[in-house]
Amino acid sequence: GVSRVYIFENRTSEEGVLLTSQRYEWVADRVRQETGNPALQDLPLEKEGFARWVEIMRNGGHLYGLVREMPASERGLLESQGILSIASVPIYLGDRWWGFIGFDDCTDERVWSDVEMEALSVVASTLSAAISRKHTEARLVQTSERLSVVLESLPIVTFTAKGDEHAEITYITGTVEEITGFRPAEFLKEPGFLMDHIHPDDRSVVRSCHLGIGSKGMCGCEFRFRAANGTYRWFSEFCRLIHGPEGSIGRIVGMWQDVTEEKRILQESNTRLQQVIQAHKLASLGEIVAGVVHEINNPNSFISYNIPLLEEIWKLCEPVVAEYAAANPGWGKRDVSYEELRNDMAEIINAFRIGADRINRVVSNLKDFARVEEGAQAKPVSVNDVIEKTLMIVGGQIRRSVSKLDLDLGGDLPQVQGHFQKLEQVMANILVNAHQAIPDKEKGWIRISTRYIQRLGSAVITIEDNGGGMTRPVIDRLFEPFFTTRRDTGGTGLGLSVSYGLIREHQGVIGALSRPGIGTRFTVFLPVKQTGGELNLRPLILPLERDLDRLDELQMEVSGIDDGFVHWFYHYEPSVERLAEYLDQHPEVDIILMTEPPSGLDPAVLLRVLRERYPLLTTVAWGGVEKDFTGPGGEKPDIYIKGPPDIRKLKGVIDGITRQRF
Questions:
Q1: Residue 527's closest CA among 408, 430, 661, 415?
Q2: pTM reported for the whole predicted model
Q3: Which CATH number describes the domain made up of 154-258?
Q4: How do the domains of the chain map onto residue ranges?
């Protein structure tokens, strides 16, 4: 045997000097260890007299022999360690001289044979492979740690999965817990965990994506994932298939990114875009009509002013024509009779007057549409004063055409910043539209109310009628310039578009809720403090449900980014009065959903109050038995969904309801 075995590792200093240090050592019994010897750490071989060693080992040679026969520059350090005979073999990592392995005999002057040196070379090669592998593993660990840090810090989830149709998760990063609330172990423990938490409507999309990856090599899709808190998050997934040996099924490497916020922003951006387009339409038309009004007004004024003159001329000419017709009986046979001429002239002159009046009416509306109050400053305005002043102008006309005009003006309403005449014009437009929409004047009514809603920071004006109502196509185009359903009765299609523009000018919102055959409600929201922002209002669904878990489940299934901004407000009070208070403070509600017979509320009383006070709200009953939602007087919800609870059926019903338009 030998007395000592050791391994030295080389490095190059910043100055470019080759240094070597003892890293490992094994010694026989009663042989002194040199592990702690400072002379063997960062030893500059060439400077300390071992230039021969450097030359030999750099060229792959072995260095061995008796110490007493070696150069004096080498003997000092070797003899200080008690070495009599030494053999050293270089260790290479690829083409780089990494270090060397040495064998010392401190008891005998061993003469190393060729066979022994060959064996030592094999040992050195084995060590080289082991060290190389260790270095590779260390680099892999380091790379893995760095990659892990990067992946864990990014707002994405990376994963691997089996490459078969089930795509069972085999690895997933810890960021999944931050995004979904579920620990990585939960995805690995249950094979179906992922698919169970994907929205039912999206599961087929994800399955198709994973099934198609075999032919395409990659796939991408978007889906909703139910997080631990019960809400759905939108994920964007991208996967790539990594093939196994010889084309066998490999594994899927993929990533998820939470794009819920992007989805919300996109939807809001689309809504804002439509609002901007509408505003630009109004602005562009305003510029156009300002010039058109002038061109139309001048010739029409000439016509209007000359109609009375034409009437006077005809009055003077008519007796002469009559006398001539009497003296010449055959005149009428040749062309036109006197009676026909007399009647036609009266109709023609009257048609001139009607046509000119209609042109004047259009021109007046166009002037309002294009009018800009240059330099006018917004002032504090009382909403109640606007209503009362408007009724002084159009109230008489309205009262003659409806049987009932209810006025409920809230007390102590804060003033809004705005322009009195512009708001007055809006109210007049809405009120005139309301009374024109009522077919049966004897049964017709209009309700006007004002109130302050603190949560919106806005004064709210509501004008409701029991006229013919509007269909969804009409509601969708309600505020478009020149869109009207009363073209044949003189409608110009400018009243509501002008009103829309004026309310936007006040940073407010105007909403319309209508049901054919029942009536229409216009709601104007005017912020008390104008901050430069806009009210963000959307139609709301109000479920009457006490079980919060059931509400959460219902919201998860139906509410979503792509559901038309449906928001669910949880509210349950066993009192019709409290429910009415809630509805008064939430005019955005347009659907009431009863998921079970409302405990503590008499269905008959509830439905009767809703019919009387909120006839435009759609009541939907879902679940239970239909008779449980029916009052003794036959009161029923507007819609009852038969059969067991079916989310798709509920969504279809909601999609078919004409929602409130803001």
A1: 415
A2: 0.51
A3: 3.30.450.20
A4: 4-149, 154-258, 271-370, 379-527, 540-655
